[in-house]
TrEMBL record:
<keyword id="KW-0119">Carbohydrate metabolism</keyword>
<protein>
    <submittedName>
        <fullName>Fucose isomerase</fullName>
    </submittedName>
</protein>
<keyword id="KW-0413">Isomerase</keyword>
<dbReference type="InterPro" id="IPR009015">
    <property type="entry name" value="Fucose_isomerase_N/cen_sf"/>
</dbReference>
<dbReference type="Pfam" id="PF02952">
    <property type="entry name" value="Fucose_iso_C"/>
</dbReference>
<feature type="domain" description="L-fucose isomerase C-terminal">
    <location>
        <begin position="336"/>
        <end position="462"/>
    </location>
</feature>
<dbReference type="GO" id="GO:0006004">
    <property type="term" value="P:fucose metabolic process"/>
</dbReference>
<dbReference type="GO" id="GO:0008736">
    <property type="term" value="F:L-fucose isomerase activity"/>
</dbReference>
<dbReference type="GO" id="GO:0005737">
    <property type="term" value="C:cytoplasm"/>
</dbReference>
<dbReference type="InterPro" id="IPR015888">
    <property type="entry name" value="Fuc_isomerase_C"/>
</dbReference>
Amino acid sequence: MTLGVIIGNRDFFPDSLVEKARTEIIEVFDKLNLKAVLLGTNETKLGGVETYQEAMKCANLFKAHREEISGVLVLLPNFGDEKGVADTLKLAGLDVPVLIQAYPDELSKMNVVNRRDSWCGKISVCNNLYQYGIKYSLTSQHVSLPSSEVFQRDLKDFVAVCRVTNGLKSVRIGAIGARPGAFNTVRYSEKILQRNGVTVTTFDLSEILGRANKLNGDDAKVKQHIESINAYAPKGKTPNEAMLQIAKLDVVLKEIMEEYALDATAIQCWTSLQQNYGCNVCTSMSIMSENMLPSACEVDVTGTLSMYAMQLASGSPSALVDWNNNYADDPEKCVLFHCGNWAKSFLPDIEISNAPILGTSVGVENTYGALDGRTPAMPLTYGRISTDDPNGIIKAYIGEGELTDDPLTTFGNRAVAQINDLEGLMKYICRNGFEHHVVMNASKTAGILEEALSNYMGWEVYKH
């Protein structure tokens, strides 16, 4: 990832502090495999920004790298000129996240030659950015050295915030099929999403099934996909005929995603696919999610948007789950469940199977393609993005917990979650009209998501 870097300066503080800061941040970026776009030492005084002329030079540099820059880091090795920083960001017009860093003073070096006053300068910079209407992020400690672990952790989190923010502003989601009639819960507003940069492209399910039915087992692409599916998960008792149907559908879904440059999909599955095509699409959805192209069932578009946001925050796959069952009488544990579309990162014992619940109405023989597997203990970030149509907003809730190894005897994709004040969370979900679907990710990234969704996207976020 590439970040623009502004090094603030104020002329009555020692210039050597600016020069040293430039060298230090380049070393940190190299260590973290980040690319910096910053002024050269010959373009302004030591590469710092103070005057309006210097702000224009830095802004022009950022404009020249507009397509690369995902965020901006502001370094304050001394008090810095707040107008110089604010003018640079205003003139550059990048509309990307901004992180404000300030150096600490050393008690033994509070003389004129070494004094920084960055603690105070950071407040002034933030005040100006607030006046200019420029959104910004803060480090976990008010002042910290770039070489410190705490700052480098902050910088890594900021990079993740940039990924989430920039990714959501340009994401393309394919809505494949109509929302199942019995699932009012997954209704959403395309218009509200589009206003926030989220594009939804719709497809009639009959178009997808029609293309799949034109393929046969002799097609090279179908053979290739059967091999890929067999390499992805054991087929168990799944008949060869069902494997062929799964592979043909998998071919078409891959083609659709490439043709329309889709980042994610939400697919109709309950119950048209089973009745009109004779298999579940869960395995294909799992493969896509594992390959960082998240896919949600029941045309849950904002569910797959939630999967995508969490994936961007953590760099790992997400899964759409149901808040499904209590776990005995433990008030802080519950069962997460779905027929079988979770990425195999969550399923070390993965196997292609059928969907017994759905099979009671459409015939179990028509539900092969669902996955069976238990998720073991791992970190948990959970959450949900939703359009609140009556209020014309996008809202979300997020939180962290743990997935546990507690005993659980059932079928499908399943996990046990432990969450502090789970009862309070359920009350919040119910009172605010959220869906029964939630997204899980094996990470601890709620803080990153809160910063990206609330501060930069401007959405209403509750962090449990």
